[in-house]
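User: Can you fold this complex?
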Amino acid sequence: MINVTGLSKRYGGYLAVSDVSFEIKKGEIVGFLGPNGAGKSTIMNILTGYLSMTRGTVTIDGYDIIEDPEKAKKKIGYLPEIPPLYTDMKVREYLEFIYDLKKVKFPKKPHIDEVLKLVRIADVQNRLIKNLSKGYRQRVGFGAALIGNPDVLILDEPTVGLDPKQIIEIRNLITRLGKNHTIILSSHILSEVQAVCERIIIINRGKLIADDTATNLANKLSKERALFARIICDEENMLQTLKTVSGVKSVRSMGKVETGAFEFVIEPEQGKDIRQAVFEKVAAMGKTMLSFADNTMTLEQVFLRLTDATDEELENMLGDKGEEE
Ligand code: ADP
Ligand code: MG
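Assistant: Here's the predicted assembly.
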């Protein structure tokens, strides 16, 4: 359904997207996960034809976004990070305006009615957009994206700025829409992506660094079998000391995880059991270990690990990436 090959985008001298390739099949719900500034919105703007690429190709259902923009764009509903709502319009009026703008062919009234119903805003259709809550406004944005019945929905951080109840409503909406749409959704929040997406593409500093199911990502990285130690201590001092323990290959801090306590990821040299040595070292320093586990990495840990790894580390961790298809 969506094919992206060798996509790069340069803003002046700055390379915001670098050689990104992926494919999304019909009916998939894929999450774009990455920290702020990673390049997610840039890629989405290129996919939807709002921004030109510096290099690479994008096709939507076989239509090249540059050579056949009209046909490609008809396939896509786009919810930008900040939907351009005309707040002095009434909800229905706005959707009718979008209908005209998109030059939709099928009968107007039943189509608008259907969209209003789908995103559950029929009850506010005659209210001014500016008087709606943020959650409702976001649903109007979804409605606009759905006008014309596009197969593909591209949603840029669809829950940013919403309260927890509204977030759940929007998530349910996405899950419902996922039953008969292909969806790409971006977020810098892992739980967000995990809640609705089957597949995760991690973008960092303009590069695609992982493309897999959440479970596979966690499994691949757990090959390292790192230990997770949560210790009440001085971060830097503990980091340096743990590195001196015999059999320890590397130590990283995941930062402060609760008051006074830091979480360290300790990687053993191949085949070494370092549990006792680490435990004794921490005890000898008079520090308290709150938890100590060699569990599989949570997706949160996978995400942090991937986004701060060097290119060489990524190669080691995800060595088979790109050879799957
Ligand atoms: P994300 O959506 O992942 O937060 P963006 O795609 O918005 O990331 O931005 C990626 C990088 O490109 C950032 O460093 C951002 O500052 C830069 N950038 C985005 N838009 C522009 C622009 N119009 N001109 C110059 N730099 C830009
Ligand atoms: Mg963005």
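Confidence is low (pLDDT under 50) at residues 321-325. The chain has twelve helices and 14 strands.
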